[in-house]
Amino acid sequence: MKIIAFLFGMTFLLSSIGPAKAMNIDWNGGYRFEYTEIDRPSLADPGGRKSYGLNYLYLQPQIIATDGVTINSRLDVLSNQSSAYRGSQLGQLWGGTVSDLPDTSANNTTRENMGATNVSVSQLYLHVSQEYGSLVLGRMPYEFGLGMTHNAGKGAFDHWIDTHDLVGYKFVVGSLFFMPMLGKVYHADAGQGYSNTEQLLQIQYDNADSGSLLGLLFERRNAGNNAVSDGAGWLNSWQTYYGDNTASIQGDFSFQRTSFILGRSWSTFGFKLEGGFSQGQTGVQMSTGNQLRLNGYGIASEIYYRPEQVKWSMNLRLGIATGDDPGTLDNYEGYQFDRNYDVAFLLFNHRLGQRDFLGTAPFRPGGYSVSNSFDDESISNTVYVSPRIKTLWSDKVDLVNTLTYAQLLNKTRGSVDSDKSLGFEWDIEVVYRPRERIQWVNQFGYLFAGDAFKEGASNLSNGNSFGFSTKAAISF
Fold first, then answer.
1. CA separation (Å) from 391 to 25, 249, 305, 343, 386?
2. Taking CA 165 as the corner, what is the angle to CA 76 and CA 8, rounded to the nearest 5 degrees?
3. Residue 28 · residue 60 · CB < 8 Å
4. Please, which residues have CB within 8 angstroms of residue 213's CB and are 6 or more apart in sequence?
């Protein structure tokens, strides 16, 4: 089946290119700088205060080979040098060096230069466009729906990005398209055994005239025992999370997820609803003798109201993501939203408290804590409501107020009599756009921490926390 699909794609590609013409290159990209301070992410003493800057530049050259045939790429000029965050869009730490932090290979007290950073290629793919469809082939960004699960990181300040090595063809019939895709997310060598493959099928109806949107995404990912064993961090993360040092790799990884997007818009009102339902097996055998399984779901909705001839608009975000049931030792029921999908500045964005209350530790970079990690938290094990009001202060300035309330769905593993309230967070943003393609954002957030952070009988500290961020972005 894979060979047939590959031959079909190559035949179509060669027949579509036609006679060679003069080649053109279009350039676009962006630059941003951010400075962030978080007062007390631990919600206790010591507070673990964070203060850091990020510097990032990316370039996206597009080679126009001939009519309808383009080669797209992305160059990350200032990328994060920490191995745990490599491949992200975080950018280079202000004052960071060319190696993993901390840098013990040089004298950091008498340093005279910051060294040189490497330029990395994060995307490179071919796009062949025809009247009723298009072919894509290569390492490409991928997004679906609201970006709740798959997010291409297209926002000016998005720190994460989904890319896949895919070959697919998009069939378009009016407002409807369906797109089968085959890909690999891991392949160790030229052999066939050490690989992780995926199959995706996206079907979507998007009618701009009526404002109707309906889409489905079916995805399946499989990796053999050898490929699972190559990722030592996968096993270690589950051993640490469950406190089970006897857990071992004894099987294959098999994962399926079904997602949907539903939307409707009118002149001043609209909504979108995205959901994802996943299940599978990890390849990790627990001390119970059973293989650890994955099983969870998440739903996110956005409702907006934009009245005409007024200087304000409103957006309401509602969502739920299942969490791990502490009563099961061989079934992980959590569902993680993409880390780019933020509803608040602190909650679900930065690690908070003295425990892993959201149960996301197996999917976060290891070796970091609440006091030295970046915004690598994600929405999980919670239900939230987050209304937002945006006011057009002037032609160049927007004022955005957001109030978020959230509760846990499941208590942390081993806790007794835990409360479920994560508390309230109030965020204020001032967005200044001095000219086209330039924006400067100042953001302040204050968290009134709920009793869930006390962890019941553990009586942990749940002091309030606040944070501030100033960031500027230029696109070209």
1. 40, 53, 13, 18, 17
2. 135
3. yes
4. 204, 205, 206, 207, 261, 262, 263, 264, 272
Among 300, 303, 212, CA closest to 260: 300
Instruction: Return the closest-CA partner of residue 349 out of 283, 445, 263.
Output: 445
Kindly report the pTM of this predicted structure: 0.91
10-residue mean pLDDT profile of the chain (476 residues): values are: 42 46 81 96 93 95 93 91 84 76 62 76 95 95 96 95 95 96 89 86 95 97 85 85 89 95 95 97 90 96 93 96 90 96 97 95 90 95 98 95 97 81 98 96 98 92 96 96
Nearest residue to 348 via CA among 298, 391, 390, 313: 298
Contacts of 191 (CB under 8 A, 6+ apart): none
C-alpha span between 71 and 120 (Å, rounded): 17
Q: Write the DSSP string, 55-120.
A: EEEEEEEEEEEETTEEEEEEEESS----TTTTTSS--EETT--SSSSS--SS-SSS---------E
Nearest to 235 by CA among 443, 288, 227: 227
Whether omega for the bond prior to residue 46 falls within 30 degrees of 0, making it cis, is yes
- Cβ atoms of 441 and 352 closer than 8 Å: no
42 Cβ contact list (under 8 Å, min separation 6): 48, 352, 353, 354, 370, 371, 461
The contacts of residue 398 (CB under 8 Å, 6+ apart) are 390, 391, 392, 429, 430, 431, 433
Place of tokens 């835990």: 418
